Amino acid sequence: MPADPASATLPTPLSAPAASGSGSAAQPQDLRHLPGSPGLRRTQLALFGAGLATFLLLYSTQALLPDLSANLHLTPGQASWTVSAASIGLAVAVIPVSALSERFGRTRIMTMAVFAAVAIALVLPFTGDLGTLTALRALQGVALAGLPATAMAFLAEEVHPSALPSAMGLYVAGNSIGGMSGRLLSGVVAGAYGWRAGLAAVAVASLLCAVAFRVLIPRARCFRPGPVNPRALWHTVTGHVTNPLLGRLFALGLLFMTVFGAVYTVLGYRLVAAPFDLPQALASSIFVVYLVGTVASAASARIGARLGRRGALYAAVATTSAGLLLTLPESLPLTLLGLVLITAGFFTGHCVASAAVGRTATHGRAQASALYLAAYYIGNSLGGAVGASAYHAEGWSGTVAVALTAMLLATGVTAWGTVAAHRAVTARA
């Protein structure tokens, strides 16, 4: 689920559900879609549409926050809850919903999830107060929880291993493009016609993606339903949470996403205010910088190979922190350069941490990935809410202080890992 968050990368997909009481065993290779086959092309296009819809909807209000504040008389902190509520809903629901897919099937859960989220999106333009809008966004996040981990499990089961990297790459591209285009589409339309029109445009675009997904997705050939054992699932989840290395990786996902959530939630407010005074549509176009994440995600494996996991994490923290400091002067070119570095650093750190989750978990890997996602989206909610409140109280420097604090904590977590690794080596010597 690389991401975002909007992610350009999500945690590494794992083919078989773990010993968590959830279901599918290893699948026969000859039933999986081979490279170049019509079934693979349909699968790729269908899940590209699903990823596009997911992130179109998840961040649909982020570019609209200044407009929401002006029209509904909200502070930045209040308006930011329209973003944070969806992330919280997804974080809370991702583990139980992904477990349900073991019993009721990946395709059924994904279909229900995307159409439920679209149905809520079609209602959002008609809301008139923050409470209703926030509640509906939280429900939308719960609905969207049925897509990320389930889509990855579907790919791992239905696609031949030789075709899996390219299939996952296209799914990730849908996530990245959805995260960017949702912000762009809503912001540009809102600049001309208001925030309600911006939300309506995203809803219609997402409906088209949902229909394309349902028409294109092939029938599952390898899925075998199994019972969901809540006690075994709980045992697996608690085991992951108490694993020191996995705990550090979950914390890093949360902390990096805190920075990303804070910066991208508040950025619109800063750009439409003095001294920049950009129009809404132009301010929304800044989200094109999000594409830097695609490049950084692709480069993260090379960086990790060269510097090691912890070295790559230190580099990601340093890059993100340097970018944050560059945004402090009231200079648009420096702010844009800083945003490029923040985005590159975030995606590098996120990719390194999320990939390490898959390698570290020796069992229950699907649940480990879901826990990482939960921490990741909690970080997005935390960053958006706290960063917006800090902006309201102290201006942009307050938001930067929140983000730099998160990076300081990420440095501490990584240093803790370095010390633990050194002690382990010494103990074996």
UniProtKB/TrEMBL annotation:
Low complexity biased stretches: 1-29
Source organism superkingdom: Bacteria
Subcellular location(s) of the protein: Cell membrane
GO cellular component: plasma membrane
Database matches in InterPro entries: MFS, MFS_dom, MFS_trans_sf
A GO MF label: transmembrane transporter activity
TM ranges: 45-65, 77-97, 109-126, 199-217, 249-269, 281-299, 311-328, 334-358, 370-393, 399-421
Domain Major facilitator superfamily (MFS) profile per the UniProt entry, residue ranges: 39-423
Family: Belongs to the major facilitator superfamily.
Protein name: MFS transporter
Lineage: Bacteria, Bacillati, Actinomycetota, Actinomycetes, Kitasatosporales
